[in-house]
Amino acid sequence: MVIPNFFNERLAGHFNGKQVLNKQDVTKSLANVRVVLSHTSHPGNIGAAARAMKTMGLEHLYLINPVRFPDKQADIMAVSAVDVVKNAVVCSTLDEALQGAVLVVGVSARVRDVSQEVLTPREAMPRLIQQASQLPVALLFGAEMSGLTNEELVRCQFMVTIPANPEYSSLNLASAVQLLSYELRLAAGLGEVEAPELVPAPAEQLERYFVHLEATLGEIGFLRTQQTTKLMYKLRRLYSRARLEQEEINILRGILTLTSEYHTNQSRKPKQ
Q1: pLDDT tens-digit readout, 173-202
Q2: Does domain 9-187 have CATH number 3.40.309.10?
Q3: With left for phi above 0 and alpha for psi between -120 and 50, is residue 132 left, alpha or beta?
Q4: Are 71 and 41 in contact (CB under 8 A)?
Q5: Which residues 6+ apart lie within 8 Å of 265 measured at CB?
């Protein structure tokens, strides 16, 4: 895939998907991304798009001649992203909305007749976020029913299309904004989820649990002499895969203790 000449060397080096941005670059990159909605007909879509943006750390919304704005419905659909709606920049022309942007990426489901390079969101967003680490960039969305106009298409350096069901590929505007915003966040290196740190219990604690387990299973009659070694081996494998923490071992041993006490009490009851 050929990278257009206007991409600098740093951007080209990023195309393989390796993110090299530091935290300062990431913050600057997201701040340099503007989402541009052209001729949006329903104010609810504006609010929903603002909500989608804010959940992914984007805040700069530009509106080109929205049919109804400001509007209460936009605020309602934005929920806690009303600040993005209130700070939206309303523009009367495409030139005004794209002023200062060094890279414009168009989003469209209809890309058969376009001359620009067409990429998926996962291919395109690393390019966009890398360029945004230096200068403003724009994601351009067309009107809900008609999409991008020819005038808007020619202003885009490349196009993004969402690979949806070919029999029904029409996405709601806010859904498309959400998906692209998410891919931008991934490209910026903010998509990793830190798993809680696992601290496995020491080997001796695990061994004490196995001794306790075997004794209790024997006490309640679950183990039979000829099966004990084989069954305990399988149970050891099971618990070893789980990598039990100390608190978990304490819980399990508590269950074993109560099981043993219950069995003892039941055994002492006179048989009827």
Answers
A1: 999 999 999 999 999 887 665 656 778 899
A2: no
A3: alpha
A4: no
A5: none
